[in-house]
Design a protein that fits this description.
The model has no long low-confidence stretch (mean pLDDT about 85). Helices cover about 60% and strands about 5% of the residues. It contains five helices and two strands; from the N terminus they run αββαααα.
Length: about 110
Amino acid sequence: DILAEALGDKDILLLANHGCIVVGRSIAQAMEDLYYLERAAMNQIIAMSTGSPLRLVPPSVLVDFQAAAQEPKGKADYADVFLAAWIAELCVSEPDFSQFDGSPRAQARL
């Protein structure tokens, strides 16, 4: 209940020293949000590691970006394609993954 209350109507909850919780209308949408959160964090660390002053994005750009990112039209379709491509890549790079069916017997092989 505490985590649900903290999450509220948001899709991502950052936990101090414990990572994050990402939720979505589907696994595909949650995975897409998690992917872009990880990429944003990576880029933030890289930018900060330069030691140079960071240039902030103007608030007007943030407002426009946030409005576009929240547009539900097409988001679910894109997330499904994103997840399918990620799974296909995983099946190629990790052949054992393509044989995993989620059963206890398959989990014991891992």
